[in-house]
Request: fold
Amino acid sequence: EGMTFGLQGNPYRGAMMFFTNQDTGSWTVLNVYKDGMACMISNGTKFQPYGGQQPDYGEKR
Reply:
């Protein structure tokens, strides 16, 4: 669950979703609110998966 803010500074909670098309490189970020309304936050092109070193979080429990 994430949060965005309206023009007057009012907070709105919702689920942030990140979609990619690895064939075309396009990507989209949506915020989906509790009432089912979805707003596109951002989109773009040239997406590439991160291929670098993975972080070390220590021992697994």
About this structure: Residues 23 and 47 are 10 Å apart (CA to CA). Residues 2-44 form one domain.
